[in-house]
Amino acid sequence: MWKPPQRIKYIPLVDTWPSREEAARARLFSPVELGPLWLEQRTWVPAMVPWRASDDGEVTEDVLDWYGRFARGRPGAIVVEATGIRDVPSGPLLRIGDDRFLPGLRRLVERVREESAGHTRLLIQIIDFLGIRRRPEREKFLRRFLRITDRHRQLLGAPAMDDEAVREQLCALDDDRLGQVLDAREWEALTMGHRERVTDTLLPHIAELPRVLPGLFAAAAGRARDAGFDGVELHYAHAYTMASFLSATNTREDGYGGPLERRLRLPLEVYAAVRRQVGEDFAVGCRFLADECIPGGNALAEATQIGVALAAAGMDFLSLSRGGKFDDAKQPKVGEAAYPYTGVSGYECMPGYISDEFGPYGRNIEPTAAVRAAVRAAGYDTPVVVAGGIHTFTQAETLLQQDRADIVAFARQALADPDWFEKVRSGCGAQVRLCQYTNYCEGLDQKHKQVTCNLWDRLQLDEPGVRKSRDGRRRLTAPAWQRD
Ligand SMILES: Cc1cc2nc3c(=O)[nH]c(=O)nc-3n(C[C@H](O)[C@H](O)[C@H](O)COP(=O)(O)O)c2cc1C
Ligand code: SF4
């Protein structure tokens, strides 16, 4: 992952933890309503893909254990990882694109209810994403994948040359010259791996996205409701289809790109279709970006307008993330796919302990507060969720007291210690295992390996019944909290 050049090293913040009585009076542990949904406390475990689903996208025992473990800490809400709305193979990522996924998803809902004794509400993040290929070998790309065009022939100065001869010539060029003959997308396909964009409207399946996505999202949300979830989070953030429609980089000319009101059109149509499907008594919100953190992308000015439009449409909550784009991703190795959390925008999404003067803790708080203020100024009281580097009670409580957000999300801190919520609420905050923000977990995610935390994944490996990673070296969930 990219690191700020200042390379200032941070350690977790030192906190004075509240007593049980102080915690009981804290805003963090007070209830909040998300439209029809009531949360017992303002704590939230945001979506995190742990690479635990089966290759067919089904809920596995490891998925049940993963969410069951978070539920034991009794946060106000857990959002299940980004779950695909289409019925297409997508590796070990959870899917909700067909009714056959319902039994597994129902078991997941039941498990979280049981483990949290009914205290934690469960939402599911639903996602659409476009195709991305692995970075190809140079030779293979030039000989097999590249479509030879007259532009190549012209730039090689041989208008009558046949395809095979063009390929031969291209293979013989050095990279500088090859970069002049290939166009920008071809060069990207060679050096990064081909990646579809929402602006590729010459491709029929991309052109028709506005026609198909509302129905796909609505059907997925309907299944989430049938499976017993308490709500859905529409994934409008990071590197995926809906965020790409919202992005200032979306120049589609079919009424769904260009000025912001047109970029908002599909996200609003998707929301309307979802709402029609699930009715008013089921929570529907979304996750979107307070800043895309890429050149030419949406910044805070656009995010505030997006927030107001989504609140006006009737969303039950708005969850703010930042960055996490493909646009500035690092070049992958040959045979690997680009990963959207490897560039500057990736750093902004999951800031690590090696940072700049601002540091990794709370980089998204002020931008989220600005979006919330705009939403409030427009007359909407939609609850706003903030995430990013929050690990202490004081951080969380202060930002709530200062009306910067309404709910606090803890992703890596909950991974480091899923009992954070119960420990802090019961006056045992001093026993919290604090996240070090090393991003070991994110490195596993990048390699599509089962995500764990290095603060606990080698502990008590001989515990009876403990489930381990495929190589048998790591436990897959945190050990139980032994109260001191
Ligand atoms: C392993 C891992 C997987 C993640 N998967 C998702 C995801 O599926 N959807 C999403 O919106 N964010 C995802 N995120 C981002 C987190 O939800 C969160 O926004 C980010 O980690 C910053 O919060 P934190 O500093 O509390 O960790 C993931 C983060 C990690 C570490
Ligand atoms: S591996 Fe653990 S300590 Fe490191 S960033 Fe992830 S959750 Fe935090």
Summarize the structure.
The chain has helices at residues 20-25, 61-72, 102-115, 138-145, 150-155, 163-172, 175-181, 184-191, 204-207, 209-227, 241-246, 260-263, 265-278, 300-313, 344-349, 365-377, 393-401, 412-416, 420-425, 440-446; strands spanning 8-9, 32-34, 37-39, 43-45, 77-84, 121-127, 231-235, 283-289, 318-321, 354-355, 384-386, 407-409. With 484 residues, the chain is an alpha/beta fold. Residues 412, 415-416, 435-441, 453-455 line the site of iron/sulfur cluster.
What does this structure look like?
This protein has 484 residues and is α/β, with parallel strands linked by helices. It is built from 20 helices and twelve strands. The chain has an eight-stranded parallel barrel with strand order 4-5-6-7-8-9-11-12, surrounded by six helices. Helix 2 packs parallel to helix 3 (102-115), helix 3 crosses helix 10 and helix 4 (138-145) runs antiparallel to helix 6. The chain is globular and about 85 Å long. It starts with 7 loop residues before the first strand and ends in a 38-residue tail after the last helix. The mean pLDDT is 97. Bound molecules: flavin mononucleotide and iron/sulfur cluster (SF4). The site of flavin mononucleotide has 24 residues, from strand 5, helix 18 and helix 20.
Key descriptive features of the protein:
484 residues, alpha/beta, eight-stranded parallel barrel, two-stranded antiparallel ribbon, 37% helix, binds flavin mononucleotide, binds iron/sulfur cluster
